[in-house]
Design goal:
This protein is an alpha+beta fold. It has 15 helices and 13 strands. The chain has a six-stranded antiparallel β-sheet. A three-stranded antiparallel β-sheet has the order 2-3-5. Helix 2 packs across helix 15, helix 6 runs antiparallel to helix 7 and helix 6 packs across helix 15. The protein is globular and about 65 Å long. The N terminus is likely disordered. Bound molecules: 2-acetamido-2-deoxy-beta-D-glucopyranose (NAG) (3 copies).
Length: 467
């Protein structure tokens, strides 16, 4: 009798442990082997940089858990491929373009091709075809990290505040996605100060009022004795290039002109190069990446309607880790991408956004692939330290989710059915639907448990790089 009871309670224990394991989407790894693996991956990312840039990047990464997370997409994707979180349905059988490095600081303000100041995804370096949950997981972990960073400024903070924010994000993502089924509304949706709410409309009004193209030109350039503008090389973020670099960049711009929106294609007056400089000390994940600023004439010879083109070296995206050769071939050999990593970034930008910048394009400089876009005069980042209450972080999380849902929905067959043949939102709504508490729970489990992993990894990193 006692044996039977013991056996069944043992069994019960095993079953409970199994259920517990299943509901724990991520199991914390806190061993010295983990620490070694983190440092190995960090060093792999630093390999391409000289010693000065390596030190500068490490200092930036040591600033906060969120900064560290931003710079370690490699770790994130390696973890997910090795230990895919349990989910309601299998990974990878419904694909769309994904942003690929979807943390909340890759949303920002800028102007679209209609001159509206919008808040949207603003970085496509890692974008590729993939399972949408790679964006959802990365975004919700970043929300937990922002929420934890604001622990001391959010009144009555507890982990429940972070849970509210993540749940609001996932719930809104699903409801927005399902609201687009069958009507194409995602193709007209964008967020500007008219429909933004919480703290976001105020932010967008401030950006609109505070920034202008003239201010941008004045900030980055100076007028020489002949009245011609060139980049201000006294700025910390601008470094002069020599004549041969300037010549190869200028030459590459002639081919770039053929890759922009049809309204500007081949307009060599518009894209007449006035100056070229190195743009340094930019970004975090891509810190140290070769990047040029190119000053071009713009619509007229008025010195304040010039454009600053942001010309950035591109390589294989991090998302390749969770992709395979069939998908890579499908995207890279498509006519729009033409086996060019700069074209891949530009194509993702056009697929994921409404009214994407007309000057988007790509170039090849000395055999290397570059993406090209204009630097928006209204390029600003929302300061998350104003998220001082549960309501504020929840409202912004809802809007991050709406933007992402619209981006995923419009980048499917709405954009190019030779790359994504079917409707993404229809497939996901049939599978998951809205609302779906199990899916919300699944995302929260992962986000909070993986955020703890980031905390642990950050400690390994800071201990290893401490002076
Ligand atoms: C590393 O590269 C940066 C930017 O190109 C440059 O400013 C710096 O002097 C270089 N440092 C070393 C040690 O080569
Ligand atoms: C590649 O990935 C796609 C999408 O996840 C999948 O459908 C396909 O079966 C994979 N192909 C191979 C050869 O693994
Ligand atoms: C110009 O600068 C590039 C990049 O720093 C360098 O590789 C090249 O040797 C320089 N060329 C001349 C002529 O100084």
């Amino acid at each position: 009798m006692t044996t039977i009871i013991r056996t069944s309670s043992l069994l019960l224990g095993t079953v409970l442990a199994l259920i517990w394991q299943c509901s724990q989407a991520w199991t914390l790894q806190n061993t010295s082997a983990r620490a070694a693996s983190i440092m190995e991956q960090v060093h792999l990312d630093l390999l391409g940089l000289n010693s000065t840039l390596q030190e500068e990047k490490k200092i930036l990464m040591a600033a906060s858990e969120f900064a560290f997370y931003r710079a370690t997409a490699r770790v994130y994707y390696n973890d997910l491929i090795q230990n895919p979180p349990d989910s309601l349905f299998p990974l990878g059988d419904v694909l769309t373009w994904i942003q690929g490095d979807c943390h909340v600081e890759n949303f920002g303000a800028f102007d679209n091709d209609q001159g509206d100041i919008v808040y949207d995804l603003n970085d496509f370096d890692e974008a590729f075809l993939g399972d949408f949950r790679y964006d959802l997981w990365r975004a919700t972990v970043s929300i937990v990290l922002v929420c934890k960073a604001n622990k001391d400024i959010i009144s009555d903070w507890s982990i429940a505040v972070c849970q509210d924010a993540v749940e609001a994000f996932v719930e809104t993502y699903l409801s927005m996605l399902c609201s687009f089924v069958g009507n194409g509304d995602e193709k007209t949706y964008f967020v500007d100060s008219d429909n933004a709410y919480g703290r976001l409309d105020e932010f967008l009004d401030d950006v609109q009022a505070g920034d202008s193209r003239e201010d941008m030109i004045k900030k980055w350039t100076v007028k020489n004795d002949n009245g011609v503008r060139s980049f201000d090389t006294s700025l910390e973020k601008i470094v002069a290039v020599n004549a041969s670099v300037k010549a190869s960049v200028t030459q590459a711009m002639a081919d770039y002109e053929q890759t922009v929106a049809s309204s500007l294609q081949g307009d060599s007056d518009y894209f007449m190069v006035k100056d070229v400089a190195l743009r340094v000390k930019a970004g975090l994940g891509s810190y140290g990446t070769l990047r040029y600023y190119v000053l071009v004439e713009g619509p007229s010879d008025d010195q304040y309607d010039d454009l600053i083109l942001d010309v950035k070296a591109q390589q294989d995206p991090r998302t390749y880790i969770v992709s395979n050769s069939t998908i890579q071939l499908l995207v890279m050999s498509s006519s729009a991408v033409n086996n060019h990593q700069g074209a891949r970034v530009t194509e993702a930008n056009r697929a994921l956004l409404n009214h994407a910048d007309n000057a988007l394009g790509y170039a090849t400089i000395d055999g290397q692939a570059f993406s090209v876009r204009q630097r928006s005069p209204w390029k600003e980042t929302f300061d998350t330290s104003v998220l001082t209450s549960d309501t504020r972080i929840v409202k912004l999380s809802e809007q991050w989710a709406s933007i992402l849902a619209a981006a995923h929905a419009r980048s499917d067959n709405d954009y190019d059915d030779s790359i994504v043949p079917d409707s993404f939102e229809k497939a996901i709504c049939n599978r998951i639907g809205s609302p779906n508490q199990d899916f919300i729970d699944e995302l929260w489990d992962f986000a909070q448990s993986y955020a703890s992993q980031v905390t642990a990894d950050f400690s390994f990193f800071t201990a290893a790089v401490a002076p």
